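User: Let's play a game. I give you a shape written as tokens, and you guess the letters that built it. Ready? Here's round one.
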């Protein structure tokens, strides 16, 4: 029996044991793939915009001769929603399927 044939037989056994499992899992895997690709693109854009913000701040500081202090940066980051991104990324770092409570 070929490996491909054996895989088909095993998938059939799973489908018989839990009718929706194979299709649902394949659909979820495709959705994860799509959403992760979109998230990566968004995070790349976010990183570029953060760098642009920093570059713009440096230009403002040079033109005005005034430094933007930590408190001002913090208020700006909070107002733009930038401050909330890092904690969300930390949550993602621990979002591996094996680490989620439902995996046990």
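Assistant: Ready! My guess for every position:
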């Amino acid at each position: 029996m070929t490996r491909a044939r054996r895989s088909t037989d095993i998938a059939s056994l799973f489908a018989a044991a839990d009718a929706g499992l194979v299709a649902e899992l394949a659909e979820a895997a495709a959705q994860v793939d799509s959403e992760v690709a979109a998230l990566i693109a968004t995070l790349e854009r976010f990183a570029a915009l953060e760098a642009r913000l920093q570059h713009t701040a440096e230009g403002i500081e040079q033109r005005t001769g005034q430094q933007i202090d930590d408190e001002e940066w913090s208020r700006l980051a909070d107002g733009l929603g930038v401050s909330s991104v890092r904690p969300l990324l930390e949550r993602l770092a621990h979002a591996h399927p094996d680490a989620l409570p439902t995996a046990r």
